[in-house]
Design a protein that fits this description.
Blueprint (H helix, E strand, L loop, with lengths): L1 E4 L4 E7 L6 E3 L1 E4 L3 E7 L3 E10 L5 E12 L4 H10 L8 H20 L3 H6 L1 H16 L4 E8 L3 E2 L5 H60 L8 H146 L4 H11 L2 H13 L27 H21 L16 H10 L1
Antiparallel strand pairs: 1-4, 2-3, 2-5, 6-7, 7-8, 7-9
Length: 479
């Protein structure tokens, strides 16, 4: 037994005797029949680089940092976290892979439903969507997201979308700055020329006013008017000449300044136009590149859609062929079942025929066995009876008669006498006909042998010898 105390960021998870499920505590007695595990509840930073793809099939990387820890204010969530940490440390690969799998899965699903422009411009809303969906999955492990920071989106090598977009913005800002500088320079030069002209005009005005004032002051000397009239006239003419000369010089200077100002304005306007043409050329090149990338993306998307359509059509054709094959297979199965049923019926019929033949053979066996028992197991007597009963001798006689009918043979007649006597010397008996038939048999066999050369079968008997035809006939007549 020991008394355990957890640190400020730790909890004790105690199981064993006297505890229904898991007991969470900061300090407690631990008995020998109980087990105690200490787990840390401080948050942990998880840094990921999630590779995702937008709805336009444009891949990019989302660097993200999530601060995740257990929900210490919820006992149920803390219990779930304790069960998760019972066999793993919070820095173990199991926990890292679990959190990373949840974050990457939800982020990829969310990005797949958004365009690249929506992801790039709606960073705050995108971050909130990822936060909500990941938090919903982490609730089942008792974890809560304390902070989530989605960094600047990064291009995947070979797909420099953000790089080109940044270059476009930078070039537009640089071009606008160059245009503003050219406009400011033009305004400065024009303003300087205008200031010089105004200075010359104000000087001429002051000179004219001075002339008027001088003339007025000269007119005041009425006493010396006559005396100095000539001098004044001369002075006036000189002054007028000087004024005319100054006016001519001023006019010439004004014309030169006006010409220079106009030339400067034309040069400035042409320089601005030339610079605008150069910038417009660069802008058109960038627009062409942008349109090229856009067309590539559109054609790629169209090709992907056509590929998916072809795949669906192929799957549908495969499904139809499978169903047709299943229908043919079902029909073949039914035909096989029908053939099997017919074969079974034929087999049953043959089996019944065989059983009938077996029964007939058994009946014949019993019949033969009964006959053999009736003649005291004398096989020869049973054979003779069967041949007589089945008319074998009659068939033999008939066949011989048909065979020799057109040969015109010599006919011999035998008479054994005593036809009226029985086999035992008596009168007519029941076996008299059979005895007469047996008496007639040897001469018949002799006649067959004489005319055809064929010996009788061994079971009938043998002849007395192969004698010449004349002697045999003589013996028959003598008998």
């Amino acid at each position: 037994m020991s008394y355990r105390v957890a640190k400020a960021s730790q909890y004790l998870a105690i199981t064993g005797g006297g505890i229904t499920d898991i007991k969470l505590a900061k300090k407690s007695w631990v008995f020998p029949w109980q087990s105690c595990t200490v787990f840390d509840v401080s948050p942990v930073n998880y840094t990921f680089e999630v590779q995702a793809m937008s709805s336009e099939k444009l891949p990019f990387v989302i660097p993200a940092v999530f601060t995740i820890g257990p929900r210490v204010d919820d006992p149920h969530a803390l219990l779930l976290y304790a069960m998760l940490m019972s066999q793993h440390d919070k820095h173990s690969n199991h926990v890292n892979e679990l959190v990373q799998g949840v974050i990457e899965g939800e982020t990829r699903v969310l990005v797949a439903s958004m365009t690249m422009e929506e992801v790039f411009k709606g960073t705050k809303e995108f971050k909130k969507e990822v936060f909500d969906k990941v938090q919903l999955e982490l609730n089942q492990f008792g974890l809560v997201i304390y902070n989530a920071n989605v960094k600047q989106l990064v291009d995947v090598p070979g797909h420099e979308y953000f790089s080109y977009l940044g270059q476009k913005t930078q070039m537009e800002a640089a071009n606008q700055a160059k245009i503003d500088v050219a406009e400011a320079k033009m305004k400065g030069e024009v303003g300087a020329k205008e200031r010089n002209g105004l200075t010359i005009q104000n000087a001429a005005k002051i000179d004219a006013e001075s002339k008027i004032i001088s003339t007025q002051r000269l007119g005041e000397g009425t006493k010396e008017e006559i005396k100095v009239k000539t001098e004044v006239k001369v002075f006036q003419n000189e002054k007028e000449a000087l004024v005319a000369k100054a006016d001519a010089a001023l006019a010439i200077q004004k014309a030169a300044l006006s010409q220079n100002s106009r030339v400067a304005e034309v040069e400035a306007s042409k320089a601005v136009a030339l610079r605008e043409a150069e910038l417009q050329t660069k802008v058109e090149k960038m627009n062409a590149l942008t349109r090229t990338e856009k067309l590539k993306a559109e054609f790629l998307s169209k090709a992907s859609v056509e590929y998916e359509t072809k795949v669906q059509e192929a799957n549908w054709e495969l499904y139809n062929k499978q169903k047709q094959a299943e229908a043919v297979l079902y029909e073949k199965q039914k035909q096989a079942e029908a053939m099997k049923a017919a074969a079974d019926a034929a087999f049953y019929s043959k089996q019944k025929d065989a059983e009938g033949l077996v029964a007939m053979a058994e009946a014949q066996g019993k019949y033969l066995k009964t006959l053999l028992g009736a003649v005291n197991n004398d096989y020869s007597s049973m054979r003779d009876f069967l041949m007589i009963n089945n008319g074998i001798y009659q068939e033999i006689a008939k066949t011989n008669a048909l065979a020799i009918r057109d040969l015109q043979p010599k006919i011999s007649v035998w008479n054994h006498g005593g036809a009226e006597q029985g086999m035992n010397g008596g009168g007519k008996g029941p076996m008299n006909d059979i005895a007469g038939l047996y008496k007639m048999l040897p001469p018949v066999l002799d006649t067959v042998y004489e005319q055809t050369g064929m010996q009788p079968p061994a079971w009938i008997g043998t002849l007395r010898g192969a004698e010449p035809k004349q002697s045999l006939q003589a013996q028959q007549h003598r008998g």
